[in-house]
């Protein structure tokens, strides 16, 4: 009976942790998907804006506290993203998706350098505000931190707000119309390039928000963009490029897969034995927890083998 | 293209390449120079193989180092186990990398464009992390070392001395360049160009774009593997960095700043990048920032890379060229002063809080250096405007 209880406890805590990490990933991938589906630009620097949000949030929190940083850091970084779109990205808009991808790749390089220059190389740990410190509840004897619950709450609230703005408000109507009929919307007197700038700024602001919220969970360091960036791209490809629903499902999936993998004690050799196969000794001794960092990428390759367009992706031009 | 008459203009890049690889060792055989040249030769092959994808087929890869790195690992393991002559090492690395390319290309070429780029990033990350996980195969932190003198002796050469190893690397570099040039003249690569420009139309006239991309990925992987083998001969070590994302990023930067539209663009890019990383990297900790700024400048202002930019500039009048040069010098001065002061304030690598630029000492806590940088930038803006209006 005790083992059943401990299993349920393990399951519940890992599930909650997995979902909270997944929602954080979703906040990142939602901004990325929003920008991609509007402008056809895959923003390689997205994770760098996330990192910038975390650093700016850290600097602001030192002066005005956590809540001040939570509001102002996304606004600042979003404004920076808007400027980037307006003065650099727009100049090469006509040259196609690859040129834009290269530009954002360069931007990622530069943002990483700026961060190192301003805040130095040493990792910084952000502090959880006192109101959110401590456990929220205990489940079968294991505590669930209040901060994780807050993180989930903000992610969900942001999701709902984004959905409401896009569906209900007038600006959302223009954005959705500009997505499919840019020329018509322009003829009707709306400034479509400005809409693009706004969308890009919103996407980067979302990334910065994720940065401020995620910072206490991880360490703030100049390599944090490189660590989470590829994962976010895996999320959007697995979910299907341009699909927000797909990004949500893929984020939760990858958040849970990683959390559970870290929490198990199985080894690859053991799994292979269950399947009746024998692995070379170099591989068999690996534990599942050790391979957790590569699981998202394994998932990516498996997904592409089975369903190249991703979970909810449409067949695009580049399928041919 | 092959049948075109011999012309000096066309032969000039080849002559420069051969001269650049062969002449310096004739005058001096200092080991740092040979190591630097060998590194450049490796990067040239690597960047050219990258351009088979980006320039010829329109496939942007963020994980090209996977092929070079895994090829080098395979070659190192085989070299340590069997009596393989050293000159065959790049070939072994190339074939192994091509096999890896068959596996990964099968998944990645199902999509093109942005999705392809993201998949290569995922595969790059997978391999970079995977290499650390299996120390039994990849040697973990230390990598897989080889002793290049331990192979069978051929024509009395054991390739222990660095001049012999360099001759081998330079020879392989030229061979690979010629092979890739001849390959880029084949009808198949014209089909790849068609797939790059209009996949739907290429498919309509009977060329399966996926198959074309797949083959191009395998060929590019082969030459990347050759580059990995050359790197292995040079440093006698197959390490995890060789397969890492940073190396994938640097080959991308080399190809793009050189120019992907011309065959010799990536060669120039590789030369510039290697020179930059050693010459500037030695004297300034800000060199990554310079490289990033330069890269962004190329992407925004000179989409055809340095080769295309120089070609366009050479068609302008002398006045414009002079004005552009002045503008460039002023920009470089302004940016270098600003960056060096800022880096000196933050990192203080000299221990005195001063920026050291070509023997001058600048103190970032005073106003004068900042004013100098600002006025230099103002002059640069003036020259840029003049150059633009003079066109």
Key structural traits:
heterodimer; A: 320 residues; mainly alpha; two-stranded antiparallel ribbon; 13 helices; B: 391 residues; ABC transporter involved in vitamin B12 uptake, BtuC; 2 domains; 16 helices
Number of continuous helical runs of chain A? 13
Order of helices and strands of chain B: HHHHHHEHHHHEHHHHHEEH
The span between the termini of chain B is 33 Å
Note the main sheet of chain A: 2 strands, antiparallel
Class from helix and strand fractions of chain A = mainly alpha
CATH class of the largest domain in chain B, named Mainly Alpha
Q: Which helices and strands appear, and what pairs or packs with what?
A:
The complex is a heterodimer of chains A (320) and B (391).
Chain A: H1 2-39, H2 46-87, H3 97-119, E1 135-139, E2 142-145, H4 146-168, H5 170-180, H6 182-187, H7 192-214, H8 224-239, H9 244-263, H10 268-274, H11 281-284, H12 288-291, H13 295-306
Antiparallel strand pairs in A: 1-2
Helix pairs in contact in A: 1-4, 1-7, 1-8, 1-9, 2-3, 2-7, 2-8, 4-5, 4-7, 8-9, 8-13
Chain B: H1 8-27, H2 31-57, H3 65-81, H4 89-108, H5 113-133, H6 135-138, E1 144-145, H7 162-184, H8 187-197, H9 199-204, H10 209-235, E2 237-238, H11 245-258, H12 265-283, H13 287-301, H14 305-314, H15 318-346, E3 354-357, E4 360-363, H16 368-389
Antiparallel strand pairs in B: 1-2, 3-4
């Amino acid at each position: 009976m005790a083992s059943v209880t401990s299993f349920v406890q393990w399951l519940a805590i890992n599930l909650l942790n997995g979902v909270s990490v997944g929602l954080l990933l979703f906040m990142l991938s939602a901004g990325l998907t929003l920008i991609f589906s509007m402008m056809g630009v895959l923003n390689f620097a997205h994770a760098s804006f996330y990192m910038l949000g975390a650093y700016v949030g850290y600097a602001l929190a030192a002066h005005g506290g956590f809540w001040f940083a939570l509001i102002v850091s996304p606004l600042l970084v979003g404004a920076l993203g808007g400027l980037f779109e307006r003065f650099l990205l727009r100049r090469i808009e006509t040259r196609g998706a690859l040129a834009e991808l290269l530009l954002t790749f360069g931007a990622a390089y530069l943002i990483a350098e700026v961060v190192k220059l301003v805040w130095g190389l040493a990792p910084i740990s952000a502090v959880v505000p006192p109101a959110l410190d401590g456990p929220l509840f205990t489940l079968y004897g294991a505590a669930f931190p209040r901060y994780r619950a807050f993180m989930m709450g903000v992610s969900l609230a942001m999701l709902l707000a984004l959905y409401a703005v896009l569906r209900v408000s007038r600006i959302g109507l223009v954005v959705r119309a500009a997505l499919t009929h840019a020329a018509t919307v322009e003829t009707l007197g709306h400034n479509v390039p400005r809409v693009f700038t706004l969308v890009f700024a919103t996407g980067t602001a979302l990334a910065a928000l994720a940065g401020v919220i995620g910072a206490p969970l991880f360490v703030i360091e100049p390599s944090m963009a490189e660590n989470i960036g590829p994962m976010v791209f895996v999320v959007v490809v697995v979910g299907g490029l341009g699909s927000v629903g797909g990004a949500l499902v893929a984020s939760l999936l990858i958040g849970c897969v990683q959390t559970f993998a870290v929490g198990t004690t199985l080894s690859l050799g053991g799994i292979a034995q269950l399947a009746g196969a024998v692995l070379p000794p170099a591989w068999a001794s690996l534990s599942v927890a050790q391979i957790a960092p590569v699981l998202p990428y394994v998932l990516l390759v498996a997904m592409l083998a089975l369903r190249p367009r991703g979970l909810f992706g449409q067949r695009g031009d580049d399928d041919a | 293209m092959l049948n075109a008459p011999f012309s000096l203009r066309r032969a000039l890049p080849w002559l420069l390449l051969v001269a650049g690889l062969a002449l310096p060792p004739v005058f001096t055989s200092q080991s740092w120079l040979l190591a630097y040249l060998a590194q450049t030769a490796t990067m040239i092959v690597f960047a050219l193989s990258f351009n088979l994808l980006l320039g010829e087929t329109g496939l942007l890869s963020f994980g090209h180092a996977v092929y070079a790195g895994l090829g080098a690992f395979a070659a190192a393991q085989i070299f340590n186990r069997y009596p393989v002559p050293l000159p065959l090492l790049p070939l072994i690395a190339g074939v192994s990398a091509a096999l890896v390319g068959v596996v990964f290309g099968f998944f990645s070429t199902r999509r093109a464009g942005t999705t392809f780029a993201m998949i290569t990033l995922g595969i790059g990350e997978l391999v970079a992390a995977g290499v650390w996980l299996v120390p039994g195969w990849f040697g973990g932190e230390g990598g897989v070392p080889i002793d290049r003198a331990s192979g069978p002796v051929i024509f009395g050469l054991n390739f222990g001395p660095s001049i012999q190893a360099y001759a081998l690397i330079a020879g392989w570099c030229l061979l690979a360049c010629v092979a890739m040039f001849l390959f880029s003249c084949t009808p198949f690569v014209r089909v790849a160009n068609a797939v790059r420009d209009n996949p739907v139309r290429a498919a309509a006239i009977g060329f399966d774009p996926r198959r074309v991309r797949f083959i191009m990925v395998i060929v590019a992987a082969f030459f990347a593997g050759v580059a990995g083998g050359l790197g292995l001969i040079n440093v006698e070590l197959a390490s995890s960095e060789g397969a890492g994302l940073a190396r994938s990023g640097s080959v991308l930067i080399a190809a793009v700043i050189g120019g992907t539209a011309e065959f010799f663009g990536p060669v120039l890019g590789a030369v510039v990048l290697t020179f930059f990383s050693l010459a500037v990297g030695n004297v300034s900790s800000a060199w990554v920032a310079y490289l990033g700024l330069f890269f962004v400048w190329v992407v925004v202002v000179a989409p055809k890379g340095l080769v295309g930019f120089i070609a366009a500039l050479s068609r302008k009048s002398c006045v414009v060229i002079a004005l552009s040069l002045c503008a460039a010098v002023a920009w470089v001065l302004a940016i270098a002063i600003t960056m060096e002061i800022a880096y000196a304030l933050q990192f203080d690598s000299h221990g005195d809080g001063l920026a050291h630029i070509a023997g001058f000492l600048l103190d970032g806590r005073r106003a004068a250096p900042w004013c100098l940088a600002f006025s230099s930038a103002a002059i640069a803006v003036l020259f840029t405007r003049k150059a633009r209006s003079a066109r």
